[in-house]
Automatic annotation (TrEMBL), chain A:
Protein known as: Origin recognition complex subunit 5
Keywords annotated in UniProt: ATP-binding, DNA replication, Nucleotide-binding, Nucleus
InterPro entries for the chain: AAA_16, ORC5, ORC5_C, ORC5_lid, P-loop_NTPase
Pfam families tied to this protein: AAA_16, ORC5_C, ORC5_lid
Assembly information from the UniProt record: Component of ORC, a complex composed of at least 6 subunits: ORC1, ORC2, ORC3, ORC4, ORC5 and ORC6. ORC is regulated in a cell-cycle dependent manner. It is sequentially assembled at the exit from anaphase of mitosis and disassembled as cells enter S phase.
Residue intervals of the Orc1-like AAA ATPase domain: 33-179
UniProtKB/TrEMBL annotation, chain B:
Lineage: Eukaryota, Metazoa, Chordata, Craniata, Vertebrata
Role played: Component of the origin recognition complex (ORC) that binds origins of replication. DNA-binding is ATP-dependent. The specific DNA sequences that define origins of replication have not been identified yet. ORC is required to assemble the pre-replication complex necessary to initiate DNA replication. Binds histone H3 and H4 trimethylation marks H3K9me3, H3K27me3 and H4K20me3.
Coiled coil location: none
Keywords, in A-Z order: DNA replication, DNA-binding, Nucleus, Phosphoprotein
UniProt name for this protein: Origin recognition complex subunit 3
Database matches in CDD domains: Orc3 (cd20704)
Domain Origin recognition complex subunit 3 insertion: 463-694
Length: 459, 821
């Protein structure tokens, strides 16, 4: 199971071969992108030599943290290929995106002065400015790479942006390759009108062996690689089932490592005493999985706890604070809304009229009502129904004052109710209750109201 | 066809009888919002812009009218422009501030339904307050000392305002300190440690403070203001406050953020480059990148400034102060905007030390429901909880009402109204204080003798200069009359005839009242110490409940009091001792000076308890021995026997010394209560300092627009005071305004109303009495004028939100109010 990092480093000959680049660079590249050799070599063969025209657009996809961004970045910078790297989430409008590309392009070349601010509103402008920018420098005889990270955002921009980027080489008539990085498959990108099909490349998830190898690579200077690798092994044993995010795992490894070292630091165990170390760290990691991994408590709080050796008891996670204190009538309004959302309209008579007579559930129900309303989710109800239920469930008389009405809106802004339909609808507004059964039961308990008795599903 | 006629009616100028019969039911509130909001103004405006489709053209409405439509969005459909003066008390929209109104990502100025329009008082304050003083004089109760009254009112309110601000600050202090220290920690950890292994390996999260502030959203503004002030003073000048309604998309959010940050930087930067910043702001691209650039330039500038020993305000901040972004209403933000913003900023966290603060009204769970794990894993969230609003209220009541510092007092009913609004409706302390302010203003406005509601020394002086009319006012007070009746005949005559004697007596009575208040508060606290430790709290857990009970009537006559005394007689010794100790402390620190004796007595009780200690030991021995005996017997019969014996002995046993003493203590407390906790309205001249007209307050603070509107339309006499309208039971009078007739007729209909039938009924009513014996009415043709009047009335009803056009049936309208069918 344990992968020897040292073995891996002893390899002298690069797995990657390419005539255009010196072996030393390739070797360095290879050491930087472990477990992604095949993808990198495929990319290198697509890229060809520096002056070759490459494929106009490449689409790279794969799950979160499968190394897409990292590999592209290291590849391009290690081989010193001219490139532009843009995150599409950050550039939330097409204008920002295009201008960002042009600004980075300017800074690629030492000749032009950086100060001039580019203005680029349309793709047409972009193509023109792009040609200018490329013409003024030695970029002409090299392939320029434009990497668009989180490319799924492109779909939300103007319709022409994505197809135009895909055939940018053709539009500009320059040696340029556009690389799209995304977490979703190409099928979800393809516009209705059709477009140039990019070369799709899949980055598979890292296996547990890969994760082990990558995480072990960066061991702390004070401890040996073997020791750290053993720790990573334990860590993966706990977390691999819930989390395969490399970044997150690395973060967790860094957070908990000091706890792992504790017995060694105190001299109670030596580095090879793996069983003792495992016994020490395992419950700790399990606790971490329930708290800090879910962001119930923050990592700084977690570190603080670790340092002071405090018990977790005093520190409650975010989910522990579910209690919401509401004014008296707001509670009843919420209960009324819940009843209105989950009971069929016809049953109101049975629940809220004094002499409703006996209505048997089986005869009474229509076919579709036999499924639980709680499985179907809340249904919208008009304001009048809400108020009518409110008046009948509150013991004393409630005057329809402005305060009651404004509380309904307050509940909407607190996201406990939500309006259905247009926000501005004045006549006959409709609402939905968005709270859970547990929540409403807790609320009802505080006002001594047995909400279950009034719910059709529990009849 | 009908519709076309309707349009014709619109084009024609409105007739004379068309004025809405609704009149504002309350005296004009202290509207500092200017004359624009006066009823006439609104009516004028309405006449000019009259249209049945006005609701669809709300963007042209003046803000005050739009405010009225707030009701409708709030659920009540009865938008009445006549309720405006209530809404706009004290220059603010009291109603809107009152509700926990928060708009969700809409446009605030052009929307019909959603919007809270707050009118800050204009800077020309002086003039306005003079006007108010004049208004005071015009009050219904004559002009006596109106200016003095007004000044007293103002100074009192200013005192109270300062006090409340102080309270708020103290209460928030803990929270603010925690947040400030969190911010201080948040980024300093990473500075200078970049070489360390752990810090290199850890992913850098955005420090985030989740502030759970409770559902009383109205109070949050103040908290955020305090927070940003505290941050500005201690941590960083770069603070941006974001609200959900400004941030419907990531673009708007960035714009808002950069606008606020770059403006605040001008405060730090010298004045001369203000223009530069102003200009560049428009040109700057709203991206994170430019924000980072800006931050770099700004920090570099301040660095160089501090280097050149130009000590500016920035010197007290850290080397690179964090940028704080506060999301005021986390719940209302859309998920996408938040996610995008967090993802973007996490990419720049190394260059831009960002700190997020989430203002949460409900529970911190909302973070997890708004953000997926991939995004929340970018945050380092710490939770901060503010004081619960109920505790906040207790403190406010404690500091404002249960003190003899302020001469003004609230009567029982009024206090109950305020507390009920708080507990039942909004949980807003801010509103409570506003209500308290309203009480003060109303008291000084309506009670001419409120000139005497000031500090005792001033009040005595003012008594001397009372005019004859004012003396008559004193004589008219019910409590004073009762006092007079208790006096001897000679004295009675003197009191009723001689002003000078009256003034003397008044001074004495005022002093009595003052002393009463001082004693009242201390004894009330003592009693509360007793009652709050009893099981089930028969007299309430909070001191405010006890206070209300004592104000209402003689507390010692109530059952609850009786049962709590019973329970107090069963307290154990250690509890009793601590309680007594507390009582001594309260009485010693009290303002009243009648308590020397009481303190002595209580101390004596305490020493007696200590003396009892030795005897208690003996007693314990006895009981222990009997216990031992009990343990020895294993035989069931003997056990039963001894138990019975024990029981008998206990029953017949004389009270122990401790029990005797306990009775004594409780009786003493009882005597204190009977002495000092007399309800205020049994005191002479209580009307001077107590505000007790709860109905006025209820009308202002807990308005019922539906009921008011219904009364206005159903019984126009109520507001119009026209003898001809004096109601006649159920029948519909044709003298009533058209809209009233139409309204009454529509009450008899179901959910859909046939316009033709309605029109016929209307014309029958209108023509019936005009031509009592006319057969001409039978002719099918309805008079054009009546037709026009009808259409006008119907469109008025539509504007008020009672009906709407229906597509279900032709020539029908749908009823929107409940109660049809």
């Amino acid at each position: 199971m344990r992968v020897q990092v040292t073995d891996y480093r002893n390899i002298k000959m690069p797995n990657l071969e390419h005539p255009a680049y010196p072996a030393a660079t390739l070797l360095q590249l290879e050491s930087l992108v472990p477990c992604r050799e095949s993808q990198v070599s495929l990319l290198l063969s697509i890229f060809g030599e520096r002056h070759h025209f490459s494929f106009p657009s490449i689409f790279i996809y794969g799950h979160t943290s499968s190394g897409k961004t990292y590999v592209m970045q290291t590849l391009l910078s290690t081989l010193q290929l001219p490139h532009v790297f843009v995150n599409c989430v950050e550039c939330f409008t097409s204008r920002l995106l295009l201008e960002e590309i042009l600004t980075q392009l300017q800074s690629c070349s030492p000749e032009t002065e950086k100060t001039s601010q580019v203005h680029c509103d349309t793709f047409n402008d972009f193509v023109r400015l792009f040609k200018q920018a490329v013409a003024t420098q030695e970029l002409q005889d090299q392939t320029l790479y434009i990497v668009l990270d989180r490319a799924e955002q492109l779909r939300e921009m103007e319709a022409n942006i994505l197809p135009a980027f895909l055939r940018l080489q053709e539009l500009t008539d320059r040696n340029v390759t556009v690389i799209l990085l995304s977490e979703i498959v190409w099928e979800l990108f393809r516009p209705n009108t059709g477009c140039f099909e990019p070369f799709a490349l899949y980055f598979p998830d890292y296996s547990i062996g890969h994760l082990q190898k990558i995480l072990s690579q960066n061991h702390p200077p004070e401890y040996s690689a073997d020791f750290y690798s053993a720790y990573i092994n334990i860590l993966l044993g706990v977390f691999y089932n819930v989390c395969r995010d490399l970044k997150e795992l690395q973060h967790l490894a860094a957070l908990n490592f000091s706890k792992y070292c504790e017995p060694v630091a105190r001299g109670e165990a030596n580095e090879r005493d793996s069983r003792k170390l495992w016994k020490n760290i395992e419950p700790h990691l399990k606790k971490a999985m329930q708290t800090v991994y879910l962001r119930e408590i923050s990592s700084s709080q977690w570190e603080h706890l670790q340092r002071d050796d405090e018990e977790l008891g005093q520190l409650k996670g975010l989910s522990a604070h579910t209690h919401v204190e509401l004014p008296y009538y707001s509670k009843f309004l919420l209960i009324a809304a819940y009843l209105a959302s989950y009971n069929p309209v016809r049953t109101d008579k049975r629940f809220f009229l004094k002499h409703h007579g006996k209505i048997r559930k089986t005869n009474f129900m229509k076919k579709h009502e036999k499924t639980s309303n709680h499985l179907l989710g809340p249904k919208p109800f008009p304001l009048d129904r809400l108020l009518a239920i409110l008046y009948s469930i509150v013991d004393n008389r409630v005057a329809p004052t402005a305060n009651i009405f404004s509380q309904i809106t307050s509940l909407v802004t607190l996201q406990l109710l939500s309006t259905v339909g247009h926000n501005d609808q004045l006549d006959g507004p409709r609402y939905k209750c968005t709270v859970s059964l547990d929540f409403i039961r807790a609320v009802a308990r505080t006002v001594n109201f047995d909400v279950i008795k009034y719910l059709y599903d529990f009849l | 066809m009908l519709l076309r006629k309707q349009h014709a009616a619109i084009v024609a100028p409105p007739g004379g009888r068309s004025q809405l019969p609704l009149h504002h039911p309350f005296p004009p509130a202290q509207g500092r919002a200017g004359s624009y909001h006066s009823q006439d103004g609104v009516r004028e405006w309405r006449r000019a812009h009259w249209s049945p489709f006005a609701r669809r053209r709300q963007s042209v409405l003046p803000p005050c009218v739009r405010t009225a439509f707030h009701w409708e969005a709030g659920g009540g459909r009865l938008g009445s422009t006549r309720a405006l003066p209530v809404l706009l008390a004290a220059g603010r929209c009291v109603r809107c501030r009152g509700c926990l109104w928060r708009e969700r990502g809409g446009m605030s100025t052009c929307s019909v339904s959603k919007g809270c329009f707050v009118f800050k008082p204009s800077p020309k304050k002086r003039r306005v307050s003079q006007k108010t003083a004049i208004h005071f004089r015009d009050g219904k109760n004559g002009s006596e000392d109106s200016e003095l009254r007004f000044d007293t009112c103002q100074s009192l309110w200013n005192q109270i305002k300062l006090e409340t601000e102080q309270i708020q600050e103290d209460l928030n202090k803990q929270l603010l300190d925690n947040v400030v220290s969190f911010l201080r920690r948040s980024h300093s950890e990473f500075q200078g440690k970049t070489t360390e292994w752990t810090y290199r390996m850890k992913s850098r999260e955005i420090p985030t403070a989740a502030l759970v502030l409770g559902v009383n959203v109205t109070d949050h503004d103040l908290t955020f203001r305090n927070l940003s002030e505290a941050l500005q003073n201690n941590i960083t000048p770069y603070i941006a406050l974001l609200e959900a309604k400004d941030c419907s998309g990531i673009k708007n959010l960035m714009q808002k953020l950069m606008g606020q940050l770059m403006n605040c930087s001008t405060d730090v930067a010298s004045l001369e480059d203000e223009d530069y910043v102003q200009v560049s702001q428009n040109r700057i691209r709203c991206s994170m990148k430019s924000l980072v650039d800006w931050y770099e330039s700004v920090t570099k500038k301040t660095d160089s400034e501090t280097l050149s020993k130009k000590r500016t305000s920035s010197s007290k901040h850290q080397q690179s102060p964090p940028v704080v972004v506060i999301f005021k209403d986390m719940e209302s933000f859309t998920t996408k905007v938040l996610q995008d913003f967090i993802v973007i900023s996490s990419q720049h966290i190394c260059e831009l030390p960002l700190v997020l603060i989430f203002g949460i009204a409900t529970s911190p769970m909302i973070i997890h429901s708004l953000l997926p794990h991939s995004v929340s894993s970018l945050l380092c969230i710490e939770l901060f909880q503010s004081l619960s609003c109920k505790e906040h209220l207790s403190t406010v009541i404690d500091k404002l009402l249960l003190t003899s510092r302020f001469p003004f007092k609230l009567g029982e009913k009024v206090l109950q109204v305020l507390i009920n609004i708080f507990l039942y409706h909004d949980f807003s302390v801010w509103n409570f204080i506003r209500g308290f302010q309203l009480c003060i203003v109303e008291h000084f406005y309506s009670q001419p003798l409120s000139v005497l509601c000031c500090q005792l020394a001033d009040a005595k002086e003012r008594v001397n200069s009372l005019s004859h009319d004012q003396c008559e006012n004193v004589r008219r007070l019910p409590s004073f009359r009762r006092y007079v009746e208790r006096q001897e005949a000679e004295k009675q005559i003197a009191l009723l005839t001689a002003d000078s004697f009256l003034k003397e007596t008044t001074q004495k009575l005022l002093e009595d009242l003052h002393v009463y208040h001082e004693n009242y508060v201390s004894v009330l606290r003592c009693l509360h110490v007793f009652t709050c430790s009893l099981p089930k709290y028969p007299l309430g857990k909070q001191i405010r409940e006890l206070h209300c009970a004592c104000l209402e009537n003689r507390v010692w006559e109530t059952e609850d009091y009786e049962s709590s005394l019973q329970l107090a007689r069963m307290l154990n010794k250690s509890d009793l001792e601590t309680i007594l100790q507390q009582c001594v402390e309260i009485l010693v620190s009290s303002a009243g000076n009648e308590f020397d004796k009481a303190v002595e007595k209580l101390k004596e009780f305490l020493t007696q308890f200590q003396k009892l200690e030795a005897e208690a030991f003996q007693e314990q021995d006895v009981s222990v021995s009997s216990q031992k005996e009990l343990q020895k017997k294993t035989d069931l019969y003997h056990l039963q026997k001894t138990l019975l014996e024990l029981k008998d002995s206990r029953r017949s046993k004389k009270l122990t010394k401790f029990e005797m003493l306990r009775f004594e203590v409780v009786d003493y407390i009882d005597s204190l209560v009977r002495n000092y906790l007399v309800p205020a309205d049994h005191k002479t001249l209580h009307e001077v300092v107590y505000f007790n007209t709860a109905s006025v307050l209820r009308g202002h603070l807990n308005a019922a627009p539906r009921i008011a509107l219904h009364t206005a339309l159903n019984n126009p006499y109520n507001y119009l005071k026209n003898q001809a309208l004096k109601s006649d039971g159920g029948s519909i009078s044709n003298k009533a305004p058209d809209i009233c007739i139409v309204y009454k007729l529509h009450l008899e209909c179901g959910r859909l109303i046939n316009l033709v039938d309605w029109l016929e009924a209307f014309s029958t009513v209108v023509t019936a009495v005009e031509e009592p014996n006319a057969d001409t009415a039978s002719s099918d043709q309805v008079d054009d004028i009546i037709h026009a009047r009808f259409i006008r009335a119907v469109s008025e009803l539509e504007l008020l939100g009672f009906i709407k056009p229906s597509k279900q049936k032709t020539d029908h309208v749908a009823r929107l109010t409940w109660g049809g069918c």
